[in-house]
Each structure stands twice: as structure tokens, then as C-alpha cells.
Amino acid sequence: MRFPMTVLRPVTLASALLVSFVLTVVVCALLPPALGLVAFMAACGVLVALALGQLHEPAVAALTRSRPATEAEFRVMAPVLAELGGRGVDVASLLVRRVQRPSTPVAVAIGRRTVVVSPGLVEATYRGDVTDTEAAAALAHAVGRRQAIRPRLELAVLAATTPWRVMVATFRGVGRAFAWLPFMRLAWTLRGAVGAICVLQSVVEDRAWAGLLGGAVIALTYLVPAAGRRIELHTEAEADQFVLSLGLGPVLAGLLRRYGHPMTLERMQRLETAVEQPQRPRLHLVHG
Fold it and tell me: Helix (H, G, I), strand (E, B), or coil: what is residue 68?
């Protein structure tokens, strides 16, 4: 059964916001009362400012761990931005990540026509390993992803869900660290059965609220990743169509194939499909 994006996105967003709020309250409660109140009010003030469109540049730099492009980096990427501008994609601000990790995308569109690129993309463009058109295709795909999602109060939501992302990253790191233990993967696979037993036991012992809360948390470990994968596939397809509409689909496909990016056969065929561009009217000389 396929659920529409209007259902999947609220599920993932509401879970992230709820967990982030609980974690923030817990952390503030562990602080001294006055300091905890000041920290909570300061966090609320920052979220209100971001929702009103303030603190845009420092917020983007902090949330993406990036910095404004240097003059040398901007000179390298200027032909790429000109290529995008010629195809109707306007990029007002260019930022470069401070640290490049394998899991981070090479380009992300965020905020008011701002694009954050990896330093590896800038270096590869400078060396000629990636052509200006290929770099433009990568940036266009990032812009297409944002247009597909069309986030509301984007920076405020990203800031509010920071505790959720920190918790997920922490659990993933702990899971990788203890993956060598016997039966660890089996225990995670059977978490649904364990959760059902805990809910049943809690109901029998007249502690239904605790069992239902634990069962809801375990259910979210199935629901949220599945919804996230569905949203990712939809967003990727919409971004691919945007790149195709700019005439850069085959260019992006060649770039991804050359760098060994995993692609399904359906996506390869989708990107390599030639989109007919509207023909310009021809001028004819009229002899008097």
C-alpha cells in the first residue's frame, strides 16, 4: 500500500519534532533552574527568529557546517553558476562545507536560493575531473530536490530537529561499534516481537501506558525509516525530472556512472531519456 507524501512527511516530521522537544526539555531540566529556563527561552527565541526569516546566513552556515566560498573558490564555480543561470536556475549564495564526509551529498540547496557544495566538488572542478556542465547538473539536482520537497519554515524546522539528528547519529555510531557482538543483528531484527511481549506484559500488570509507550517507540523504528525511504525515492525522481527539463539528465547520469554512484536501471533510463526542447522560431529573409 502506497501512502501519499502528504501523509508520509508529517509522520517523519512529527516524530522528529516530538523527540527533539522531549530531549530539549530533559536537557534543560538537568541544568540549574535559572540556567535551564534561560536556555529554553533562548532556543525558542532562535526558532521564532528563524521562522520570521532572520539569521538566515549564520543559520545555514551552522546547520550545514559550511562557510561562504572564498574568492578563489568562487572563481572556480563562477562558470558553473553562469551555466545554471543560462538555464533559468538562479543561485544567490554559494557556501562550501568545512568538512567533507563520505555520507554528505556533494551539493545541497537550502534557504533563499543558497547552495552548499562540498570542497571535493570545487577541487574536482578546478582540476578538470568534473566539467562545468557536470557540476551544474549536480547543483541543479540539489535545487530540484528542494523544489520537490518545498519545505515550509525550513531553517526553523532544521534547527528544531537538531536533537533528533544528533540522537540518530549517536545510535548509529553505537550500533556500528557493537555490531561485532553475537546475535546483535538478530536482536534488532526481532525487536518487534520483543516489543509486543512487553506491551502484553505491561497490560497484564496494569501498566498499560508504559507498554503502549514502548510499543509506539518500537513501531516508529519501523515506520519512520520506511517513510523516509519512500520520501527519498519520490524526491530523487522529482529532482531527476527537473534536471531532465534543463537538458542535463544524460550529463548527470554520466557523472554518477563515472564515480560509481549506485543507480537502479530505472533511474539510469530516466536520466538518459532525451527531453525534446522547444524549438525556437526560425527567421526567414523576405526579399522585397
Answer: strand
